[in-house]
Amino acid sequence: FLKKKIIFSYFIKKKKVFFLIFVSVVILIILNVSTNTHFPIIDLKRPPVYPLFLILSGTFLFDSFIPLMAVQLFLSFIIVILINEILILNLKSSNIAFIFTILFSLTSIPYILIKFLIAEQLLFFFTVLTYYLLSNYTFKNKDKYLYISIVVATLAWLTKWEGVLLFLSVTFFIILNINNFKHKKIFKLISF
User: Fold this and answer.
1) Distance between CA atoms of 187 and 166, rounded to whole angstroms?
2) Are 124 and 79 in contact (CB under 8 A)?
C-alpha cells in the first residue's frame, strides 16, 4: 500500500504523462462501473463528448443541422491542413506533401461525413490531430506534443468507443519510444 501511495504522490508532484493516462483510465473505469448498476450515474450508451459537441455547435439551440454542418466543414478543412503538415514533417518535401494533400482533398474522405449527424467526423478529426501531435513530438522532441496527444486521444475515446484504439496506439507509441522520452523514471516506476 505504501509503495502505491508513493507512486501516486510522485505522479501528482511531477504531473507526467502516465498520470494523465492513469487518471483517464480510472475515470473511464468508474463511469463503466456506474453503467452496470440499476441506476447509472451517467448513461454511457453514447459517449459524452459528441452530445457536448452537438450542444456547442448550436444544433440544439438553433434546432437545425446547418451549424453542425458548418462546424464539421471547418473540421474537414483543418483535417486537410493537418494532413499536409504531417506529410511535410515525414516527407521533408513541401512540394510532394502538397501534391499528396491535393490528392487527399480531391477524394471524398474529408468531406463525406459533413452532412451526417454521426460522431465519425469528430473522431476522424481527433485521430488526425493525434497523429499530427505525435509527428511533431517525433521530429521536434518536445514533450508538450505528447501530453496534448494523450488528452486528444482520450477525447477521441470519449467521442466514440472505437476511439480506445487511438488511445491504445498513443500508449504503445509511448512504450515503444521510451528511449526518446526525457522522463524514463516514470516508466520504471510503473513497470513492476
Assistant:
1) 20
2) yes
Give the burial string for 80-90 (b: 16+ CB within 10 Å, else e). Answer: bebbbbbbbee
CB 189 within 8 A of CB 10: yes
What is the rounded (10 degree) CA torsion for 18, 22, 28, 30? -170
- Packed helices 120-140 and 66-91: angle between N→C axes, nearest 10 degrees: 30
Sign of torsion, CA 50 56 61 64? Answer: negative
The rounded distance, in Å, linking the Cα atoms of 135 and 90 is 8
CA distance 183 to 178: 9
Classify 58 in phi/psi space as left (phi over 0), alpha (psi -120 to 50) or beta.
left
Residue keyed to cell 526525457: 182
Q: Output DSSP code: residue 44.
A: -
Helices marked H in 92-180: 94-106, 120-140, 143-159, 164-176
Per-residue DSSP letter, 1: -
Low-confidence ranges of the chain (pLDDT < 70): 1-45, 179-192
160-180 pLDDT, tens per residue? 888 889 999 998 888 887 766
What is the distance between the alpha carbons of residues 85 and 74, in angstroms, rounded to a whole number?
A: 17
